[in-house]
From TrEMBL:
Gene3D superfamilies: Tetratricopeptide repeat domain, Winged helix-like DNA-binding domain superfamily/Winged helix DNA-binding domain. It comes from the Bacteria. Residues 98-239 form the Bacterial transcriptional activator domain. This is Bacterial transcriptional activator domain-containing protein. InterPro entries: AfsR-DnrI-RedD_regulator (IPR051677), BTAD (IPR005158), Sig_transdc_resp-reg_C-effctor (IPR016032), TPR-like_helical_dom_sf (IPR011990), WH-like_DNA-bd_sf (IPR036388).
Length: 752
């Protein structure tokens, strides 16, 4: 084994002399290591900066910082592997054992001629997809490279496992682990599943073989792929060697009750009809569901099931009803005419849609049956409902999957239905994961909102404009966010009922977040509250807007009450992002009261919630906020500095500015004027980009106080004058209070 090992298949892993090394916390630094490792030539610094950083992040400085971390990881005494000069960077991998490189080299040399032991060693090194969890989809060039490498690695591993299973066919016990790995890698590949079934039967494990048969059929159907018959042929044709007790007969057939071999053609009447419905609900049909979807009363269903159990077509156990043999379920399903099959799937999907989703299996069934019904609108709505349920239970990847499947289906739709459903799917997709190309995504959402407006779909137009506003707000485009917020309100100005209330409340909330047109926000909110009371409508946008306006007026107790109400409503509706934002505002109340002990407790809740949300800035913010509390309570700034690095990379300017201003205040209390000036200066840059007057006022006030303490009179005069100019305009009451407190400090010290 080489002294240094780099594993890229699965989570990134670096080993020195067999010992796993601690990796840098920065995902971009780890991504940089992988990128350099698979490029044999030196790469320009400009290219690497464009690949992984954005201009506001100081790309060259970030690259230098990452390289300093990587040197400690890959270099060793007397051996410099990371080579960097003023123009380029390269990694000498001559003596680094890289799993992905070894896999591709083995495939290129020819798998059919390679030593089987070498093939097995290479197969064992595959721990998962290439750079699992390190896609960085906000950076399209790196993301595209990563996906291409992942696809290439998966193809190479599939070829390797296929070769092993074929070459070890005469020793099934040795081939079996590789067949299992092949199926895990390509779960929808009928050939892989058929070889696994064949090996399990050859090893006298019929129960496991049947489970794999049923699972394979179900997965392939749910994916909308055709079955080519390989699975059923593997089940039918594989024969075990005779044992002394069954010599001269097929052991599997001999072990099966005679009635179980009855062909499906023997079924008739109610039993045949119930068994057809059971085939659609396989592998575990539920008697209650059978009664509801078949239209038969309980007695007729019970009698049919009794006949099926007596003939061993169905068995009842601790897990409920099951087909004794998956082959019978497949035969019954294939015997139903396509038109009737679609109608039956539609009936099941409609029945499932009438009930609240309670588990992932139910969500998957709804999506499967709706898709198999052939009704595009029903299928897309099922994807939306399944995705929303996944968001409630923090299954974000699954929610993203359903949203993407739904968007593919809308490509075949036209008119108002397509526009409205596509907007709901984009809303679902944004809640599940940040957009890889947020500018293009926001543009697409605005285009759909405009189309919805043209079709008269006012509620969906409002949804589109507000979604675009949220996307742009999160990325600092506050001017565009402001315009799209107003457009959302205009879209539903003539609307009625609940949609009008939500539109006005959401607009008031967005205007308050943007600190724009606050008088208009107050008027809209008053109208929304009046209508909501009259029509008995409750929505978290109303207390969120009330809380933001109260915070702007520095009425902290009222704001806290509203944010608690909003948090409760968001939790009840399954709006996890809204719940996080309400909790985030409550944390800000704690900061404004300098109650860091309470803030730390709230940070624990934020970390738990943020860690289960999409891969956005929520989790890094919660970690950084908790580190800030630790600084306040233990006077230890190191963990906060580390946490800021991750938050900066998350592209969350507003959240970053808030924490930096709080940290700068703490720095001044602890007589660390240099650190306070640095933090307040960075916060000021972010606040300027975001056009946040309140944060700009506090940043200038802090910088003026830092300059006064450091004896920098020109800087003090500059920032004091800028703060005074901002204070004459509309700013938040809390920022004005903090400014006045800082302004009074020199006078108080002079009097003393």
């Amino acid at each position: 084994m080489n002294a240094l090992t780099l594993n890229l298949l699965g989570d990134l892993e670096v080993l020195r002399d067999g010992q796993v090394l601690a990796l840098p916390p920065s995902r971009k630094t780890r991504a940089l290591l992988a990128y350099l490792a698979l490029h044999t030539r030196s790469l320009s610094r400009e290219h690497l900066c464009d690949l992984l950083w954005e201009l506001p992040d100081d790309p060259r400085g970030s690259l230098r910082w990452s390289l300093s971390k990587l040197r400690r990881l890959v270099d060793s005494p007397g051996r410099t592997r990371l080579r960097a000069d003023r123009l380029g960077v390269g990694l000498d991998t001559a003596d680094i054992d890289i799993d992905a490189v070894g896999l591709h080299a083995l495939c290129s040399a020819g798998l059919a001629q390679a030593d089987i032991a070498a093939l097995e060693r290479a197969a064992a090194r595959y721990r998962g997809p290439f750079l699992e969890g390190l896609e960085l989809d906000r950076f399209p060039d790196f993301h595209g490279w990563c996906l291409a490498e992942r696809e290439a690695a998966m193809r190479a591993q599939t070829a390797l496992l296929t070769t092993l299973v074929e070459r070890l066919a005469d020793t099934p016990e040795r081939a079996l682990p590789h067949a299992h790995a092949w199926v895990r890698l390509t779960p929808f590949d009928e050939t892989a599943r058929a070889r696994l079934v064949h090996l399990l039967l050859a090893l006298h494990r019929p129960r496991e073989a049947e489970h794999q048969l049923q699972l394979g059929v179900r997965l392939i159907r749910e994916a909308g792929l055709p079955l080519n018959g390989q699975l059923l042929r593997a089940w039918r044709e594989t024969r075990l060697p005779p044992t002394p007790s069954t010599r001269g007969a097929d052991p599997f057939v001999a072990a099966t009750p005679p009635a179980a071999q009855t062909p499906s053609s023997a079924l008739k009447g109610d039993t045949l009809e119930v068994m057809r419905w059971a085939a659609l609900l396989a592998p575990e049909p539920d008697p209650a569901t059978l009664g509801q979807v078949s239209g038969f009363d309980t007695n007729r269903v019970g009698m049919a099931l009794e006949v099926a159990e007596r003939h061993h077509w169905l068995t009842s156990g601790s897990q409920g009803l099951r087909f004794t043999h998956g082959e019978l379920a497949s035969e019954l399903y294939q015997a139903i005419t396509p038109a009737r099959r679609q109608a039956m799937h539609r009936r099941i999907a409609e029945w499932l849609a009438e009930r609240p989703l309670n588990d992932m299996r139910q969500a998957a069934s709804l999506a499967h049956h709706a898709h198999a019904s052939g009704d595009l609108e029903l299928a897309v709505r099922a994807m939306i409902e399944a995705g929303r349920y996944c968001l409630r239970i923090f299954a974000n990847q699954e929610a993203q999957h359903y949203a993407q499947r739904g968007l593919v289906l809308t490509d075949d739709m036209t008119g108002t239905r397509r526009v409205c459903l596509a907007l709901e799917l984009h809303d679902l997709l944004y809640s599940a994961a940040p957009m890889a190309d947020w500018e293009a995504g926001a543009g697409e959402v605005v285009a759909l909102a405009e189309q919805a407006l043209e079709h008269g779909a006012l509620a969906h137009a409002r949804l589109g404009f507000q979604l675009a506003s949220h996307i742009r707000w999160a990325h600092g485009q506050w001017r565009d966010a402001h315009e799209q917020t107003l457009q959302a309100e205009r879209a539903t100005r003539c609307g009625e009922g609940r949609e009008q209330v939500i539109a006005m409340a959401e607009t008031a909330r967005c205007l308050a977040m943007l600190e724009r047109d606050l008088n208009q926000a107050g008027e809209l909110l008053a109208q929304a509250r009046k209508l909501a009371i009259q029509q008995h409508i409750g929505h978290p946008a109303i207390p969120l807007a009330q809380g933001l306006l109260s915070l702007h007026e520095d009425r902290l107790d009222k704001a806290e009450s509203y944010f608690k109400e909003a948090r409760t409503l968001c939790k009840a509706m399954g709006d996890r992002l809204g719940e996080f934002q309400a909790q985030e505002m409550l944390l800000l109340m704690d900061f404004e009261r300098d109650d860091y002990a309470q803030a730390r407790e709230r940070c624990h809740q934020l970390r738990e919630l943020g860690g289960r949300l999409r891969d956005g800035s929520e989790a890094p913010y919660a970690v950084a906020a908790e580190a800030l509390c630790h600084y306040a309570l233990a006077d230890d700034p190191d963990s906060f500095g580390v946490a800021l690095v991750t938050l900066r990379h998350a592209d969350a300017r507003h959240r970053l500015a808030v924490l930096l201003l709080q940290a700068a205040r703490l720095d001044l209390i602890r007589e660390r004027a240099d650190s306070a000036r640095q933090r307040a200066g960075e916060a000021l840059e972010h606040a300027r980009v975001l056009e946040r007057r309140s944060e700009q006022l506090l940043a200038h006030a802090l910088l003026a106080e830092c300059a006064r303490r450091l004896g920098d009179t020109p800087a003090w005069r500059q920032h004091a004058q800028a703060a005074e100019t901002l204070a004459r305009g509309p700013v938040a009451g809390w920022a004005r209070r903090r400014w006045l407190a800082l302004l009074a400090q020199p006078e108080a010290e002079d009097e003393a």
